[in-house]
Amino acid sequence: MATSSGRLIAGSTVSMSSIKRRNANPPQSISLICRNQIQGAPPLVLLRPSQRSRPWPIEAVPSAKFWDGSDDFEVAKEEKEKKPEASPGGKTDDHALAGKHDRTTEIVIAAAVTAALGVGNRVMYKLALIPLKQYPFFLAQLSTFGYRAGIVTKEMLSVPKIPFLIVGILESLALTSGMAAAANLSGPSTTVLSQTFLIWQILFSMVFLGRRYRINQLFGCVLVAFGVIVSVASGSGAAHSFKDAGIFWSLLMVLSFMLQGADTVMKEIIFIDSKKRLKGASLDLFVVNSYGSMFQVICIALLLPFLSKLWGIPFYQLPSYLKDGGACFLNIGAKTTGCEGAPLLPIMFVMMNMAYNISLLRLIKISSAVVSSLASTVSVPIAVYFFTLPLPYLGVASALPTGFVAGTVILVLGMLLYAWTPSSQTPDSVIPSSPST
Hints:
The chain has 437 residues and is mainly α. The protein has helices at residues 2-24, 72-82, 91-128, 136-142, 154-157, 162-182, 187-194, 196-208, 215-233, 238-245, 247-277, 285-302, 304-310, 318-330, 344-366, 369-386, 404-419; strands spanning 31-34, 44-48, 56-59. A hairpin with a 7-residue loop joins strand 2 and strand 3 (56-59).
């Protein structure tokens, strides 16, 4: 104890003596000498306390980095040393640019696959209605089943179900209103009104996703819709059909496509929100399909009284209608006259419809609802051309509309205009993508 006290006293004495000696010395001048700075290197400053003292070289810190009295400067310095710097040749920028091009290529390929499957879906739907022409409602319900869960996790299954319920409600209401309007409108009139689907998607994506589009993209979408109208509905008396049907059924069909546009944007919101909840993990497509189909079936079941009246089937006869539809689908029983081609054609349609919907969802996931709508729109005139070919079970092939070629040219120009990027824009703005999460 005595030893410790002695050390403490001795240390205090020495410290006080040092302070006194420092105070006794007169203040010395300090001179700063800045050496010539080499280009690209920080300036070197020499600190000279006096003329006799040896100069102390001090390297200046660049203006981008400064010390705020904490240890973050050393951490930032270590991170800078670990971070790979771009070489004189700009390899880092080349890799980033290559990644953007790869992503754009992926979206273009996915859009082409979706358009091809869209053509197959339209053609197979027409073929499937040949044996089930008396049971279209049965075919519509058959296409909602068959989705199965893929490789999913508990986190994916624990996502909120309210958005999927909204999707189911939107899809069921869109189907119901679309069926009611289509029963009173001609095919060309429905094709013309279906182009409002793209307009609703753009509007909803701007409102709910905060997405902004360039003038060339908006004008390109208008040209695509106009090209479809010219190629499909030209010379078919669509304007006269609108006058005969009345304004109510036309507005009801527009409402149907508005609900479909809201449905696709809602699915895009689900993918964006799930990426945040799953900490960057991607939500499986089959989860969206399964939950959406489940709620759609529930909502349609609640609307069966209205739907049965729409198709001219009394509600009490609905069980026998579904039973006869199942017999025609399987092509088994006595009441199978006119069911030739079943069950092959309906099964092919269900499989094609599943592939098309999955491809459409994937395109929404990696790009946007508007891009998926453009890919789906392109399939319309291509499907019209396929119906002019001698397909089995269709009988006499139909003739091309008078403005098919002109409308197709307008459609292609619209797609090119939509994908065109001005020189002042970056390459990643060619196709609008989901907001970063």
